[in-house]
Amino acid sequence: MELNTLQMMESYRPLNTPKAPKAGDQQALKEACKEFETILLEQMLNSMRKTVNKSGLMQGGMAEDIFEDMLYEKYARKMSDSANLGLADMLYRQLSQKHTLSI
Fold it and tell me: Could you tell me the pTM of the whole model?
């Protein structure tokens, strides 16, 4: 008996069939999108900070650099939480739609 390609494709079943996304998966996706927005904002703020010339009056050295990094990280987190930029929401809608379509 000869099997044609169509019969072989019909009989094929993947071992790991995808399941419907759980509520926890959706929450994890929302958090990941929010974190991505925060990281993007932090990168943007750091790039903006590099364009500002330092006066040389106060040289804080490495401690000042570390403090500024932590400060701008907090700024980015606060902006992501309070400002309605919409990037995290847009990413979530796009990624959750792709996830449900691929199931």
Answer: 0.65
